[in-house]
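Attaching the record inline, Q. Sequence:
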Amino acid sequence: MHNNPVEKAGLFSSAAESKTKGVDTLLGDPKKAILKLAIPMIVAMSVQNIYQLVDTYWVSGLGADALAAMGFVFPFFFISMSLSNGLGIGGGAAISRRIGARDKEGADEVAVHTIILMLILVLVFSIPFYTFAPQIFTLVGAGKTTGLAVAYARVIFLGSIVVFFTNVANSIIRSEGDSKRAMQAMVLGAGLNIILDPIFIYTLKLGIAGAAWATLVSLAILHS
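Structure, as predicted:
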């Protein structure tokens, strides 16, 4: 007998021998399933924007240049969010279909392949952006705020694995019919970010980079 790595990935699929309530939801009445899945999903997606709003609020205390620098970084942050959300939604849809077909092994295989693709995307996205951040922000016209933009962005790029994993993992959880748990993680993460932002920015004197660290730490703690 050998250890199957796909079976070890069962932590990404709740369709185990004893079905969870989430899987029962998927296999039950479609109308009830849509309601149970949609509302928490809408809340979770809305909460994602709170991270940027909170960062903007606390960074505004550092001055106009710091606030402007964040404006140059946000589009790149949203690119990472879009890539990870797209991958998570695609993988989650495939997992849901296999759960519906009562194919546990197939669901686990999709989860593993989704994680592998996520790691590849992280490398493709983070390494070039981290390495050439000064040139990128100079090119887009950051001007005198380039240094501040680089300080914030490099933390985000360095920790992009956290951003990608959070969105992909939450999508996999939702695909198993447990969108409520994914919503709770996002809400708690946003609350933790509200607490950590002033600590990292002002108490620890990390400045604009502290806002990025607070975001990454809050996401990492909830998904560790």
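Confidence is low (pLDDT under 50) at residues 4-19. The CA atoms of residues 77 and 156 lie 7 Å apart.

More tomorrow.
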